[in-house]
Amino acid sequence: MASVVPVKEKKLMDVKLGELPSWILMRDFTPKGIAGAFQRGYYRYYNKYVNVKKGGVAGISMVLAAYVLFNYCRCYKELKHERLRKYH
Fold it and tell me: Residue 34 domain-assigned?
C-alpha cells in the first residue's frame, strides 16, 4: 500500500500541477515563515557547497555570479543609456 502524503507536507518537486494553487496557499507567508525559508535555503546551500571535505571555488563563485547578475539587473537602466551614446 502506498502511503498518502498530505499536500502541505509535500516538496515542491513532488506537487502535481493541479495541486499547486492549494500547495502555495498552505505556505507560511508571515515574516517568521519567510525568514525560516531563507534560513533553510542558506543552510542547505552552505552544507552542499561550502561545508564539504574537498571543497572548491564552486560555492563562492555561485554567490559572486549571483551578486554580479543582481547588480547588472539593478543598474540596467543606466547601462542601457550609456550603451546608446555616441562618443564622437
Answer: yes
Q: Is residue 35 part of a domain?
A: yes
Q: How far apart are CA 11 and CA 43, in angstroms?
A: 17
Alpha helices (H) in 27-85, listed in sequence order: 31-45, 58-74, 76-84
Q: Vertex 40, ends 34 and 35: CA angle to 5°?
A: 20
Q: How remote is the C-alpha of 80 from its chain's centroid?
A: 27
Residue 87 lies in a domain: no
Q: What is the pLDDT of residues 45-64, one digit of tens each?
A: 888 888 888 877 888 888 89
The whole domain housing 52 covers 7-80
The dihedrals phi and psi of 84, each to the nearest 5 degrees, come to: -85, -5
Q: What is the pLDDT of residues 1-39, one digit of tens each?
A: 556 777 778 888 888 898 888 888 888 899 999 999 999
Number of structural domains in the chain:
1
